[in-house]
Write a structure and sequence with these properties.
- A three-stranded antiparallel sheet has the order 1-3-2.
- It has eight helices and three strands.
- Helix 2 crosses helix 4, helix 3 packs antiparallel against helix 4 and helix 4 packs antiparallel against helix 8.
- The chain folds into two domains: 71 residues, no CATH class; 88 residues, Arc Repressor Mutant, subunit A (Orthogonal Bundle), CATH 1.10.10.10.
């Protein structure tokens, strides 16, 4: 795909997405979760060199070795991130149990939803935990007090709250890669 360049822009992005979707389609992946762009961005020069070597010399073996190293790297990172999510979940469940008293069950219910929606409003939380707006607001404020949530707007109305420690698990991976080579892959 990178070689034929069918589009004026975005050929690399589309090609890298196709890798994941092809592996998913062929049953190699149960879900399209493999994000190889991260690895290619970390090793951008080698990525381009390997592609060029396939074009110029037919070095498919070198490309496949590089590609499979990337698959292993990304799979290991995903496994580590999953482990960190499990540890965070257990730590934060215990924090909620120790600090929320009679609101523990609703706090745990909201915490579970934060893994699918790490940025919420009180109205969103209200729908998730089935409490009055005032009681939901109180619950959210308690989660802010114990530093499980952080208000991110600085406003008095229409506030949004973020589950920072969860989001950090994903942002850390991105920030580590950004220092490697800053030129985006096409």
């Amino acid at each position: 795909f990178e070689t034929i360049h069918p589009f004026l822009d975005g050929n690399g992005r589309v090609g890298r997405l196709l890798i994941t979707f092809l592996l998913y389609e062929r049953g190699v992946l149960r879900r399209p979760l493999l994000y190889l762009s991260h690895y290619f961005r970390l090793h951008q020069t080698e990525y381009y060199d390997r592609l060029q070597s396939v074009r110029d010399a037919g070095d498919w073996e070198g490309w496949l070795r590089f590609f499979l190293d990337g698959v292993a790297h990304v799979a290991n990172e995903a496994t580590e991130t999953a482990r960190r999510i499990v540890n965070l979940r257990e730590r934060d469940r215990e924090l909620v149990r120790q600090t929320l008293g009679p609101r523990t069950s609703r706090g745990l219910a909201l915490l579970e939803q934060l893994y699918q929606r790490p940025i919420i409003t009180v109205s969103m939380a209200q729908q998730l935990v089935d409490l009055s707006f005032a009681n939901t607001n109180s619950l959210v404020n308690k989660l802010v007090d114990i530093q499980l949530l952080r208000e991110m707007t600085g406003q008095r109305r229409n506030r949004r709250y973020v589950y920072d420690s969860y989001m950090a698990l994903f942002l850390d991976d991105e920030s580590e890669s950004s220092g490697a080579e800053e030129t985006p892959l096409a």
